[in-house]
Amino acid sequence: MKRSIAVLALLVAALAPAGAQSAGPNSAAASSFPPALERYEGEDGLSLAAVLAHRIRVEPLNLVATVLFALAILHTFAASRITSWSHRLRDGHRPAPGGAESSPDALEAEPSHAREFKAELLHFLGEVEAVFGVWVIPLLAAIALARGWGTAEAFIAHGVDFTEPIFVTVIMAVASTRPVLEFAESVIGRAAALGNRTPLAWWLAVLTIAPILGSFITEPAAMIIGALLLGRQLFELGPSRQLRYATLGLLFVNISVGGTLTHFAAPPVVMVAPRWGWDSGFMLYTFGWKALIGIAVANALYAMWFRNELAALRRAAGSTPTPVPAETPATAWVIAVHLGFLAWTVFVSHTPVLFVGGFLVFLAFTHATAPYQSPLNLRPALLVGFFLGGLVVHGALQQWWIEPVLSRLPATPLFAGSIVLTAFNDNAAITYLASLVPTFTPELRYAVVAGAVTGGGLTVIANAPNPAGQAILGRYFTGGIAPLGLLAGAAVPTLVMSICFFFLR
Q1: The whole model's pTM is what?
Q2: For residue 97, what are the contacts with CB-CB under 8 A and spacing of at least 6?
């Protein structure tokens, strides 16, 4: 318990001040970097290439920041290979049968502790959740060398909003507790009971209900609950690699669009709703019903495609009785308190001081009700927060090229371009930058938001809740989740959602 509080305190101390709006000695430096979009003058009539070249001349660090961001994206694609290298190094100094060291190559001459250090370092660099945070280091070094440490410090302290990473960390820790999971499993289990609780029934229930819940308990919470239940009810049964990636891609896409029934649950919608005057009624009428149709169609297509394997998993599941949990089931009042903490976190999601303070009280409550709790593991939540923290730092420096690209596209290319850009940047960043374009018509606003939520499942970085899903389900993928495997699994549901949002008017 004390260790958990200490870790959280370090997180708050490191991140919370960055969201503060109080003026300080470095606030002027923060306002000068990165340059505000209105500072790029004399661009009327220039081509896109000329505009980008002009912005690089005005601020050469623009190009440096984007190159480092591109390298970080390439790093995510290489993460699984780096992890495999780590495993090879770690296995290289394990005793072989009979007591001999299994060191088949040049590693044999290297001391075992040195190999262990290298193995652990590679394992860290192979963690997708660590990638963008790691690449913040050369980014800050470049800013400090070019502008001085004061500018780099001011940019982190005043130029980046870390509210979302902290929120996702807290909501992930609360939503992944046993009482919340038991409640979610009982609710979704009622739907699965209509299909005799077979793996197919659980699969359909989770992939349909969890994304819809995302519109009310926020997408990060829905992702955590959906991933935990899929792990327990499907992935533990040993499905094929193809079904695992198809399920993961479908979960990511469904969660991304499932939060569009309201105006406060999906990060890309939250970024624009206050600026454009969108309320929950508008979202349901304009986006929500199309998302529901898309979820139903995509689920049905994959269910038909994998029906034979899901039936085989049913026989395998039915051949072994479900083990009785050793833990004491949470009582109704404990579940109610957990749901209350979850609701509080969602209600004050834009005020870190309030939801972090509530989380500290929550930690004390879980300690006091230990018989109804599983051990609280903060590592996945902290890693996801670290991932998103690095992503928002890099994303804050990409507006110099995203804004002119978006502003020059008509509705149809903008819809397609938004899907593509979302795969390489958080979709909330895409819609936020779109909200800064004063010439956007209602048609263009619809196109950019529809494209952003449609493409939210193509990569881990495309939607803020995705890293949470990866952290939970990644252990079921040998060597980690391969980006191309996720892309393939998400391709069909992304196409279905594209058709729904583009043609259903």
Answers
A1: 0.74
A2: none
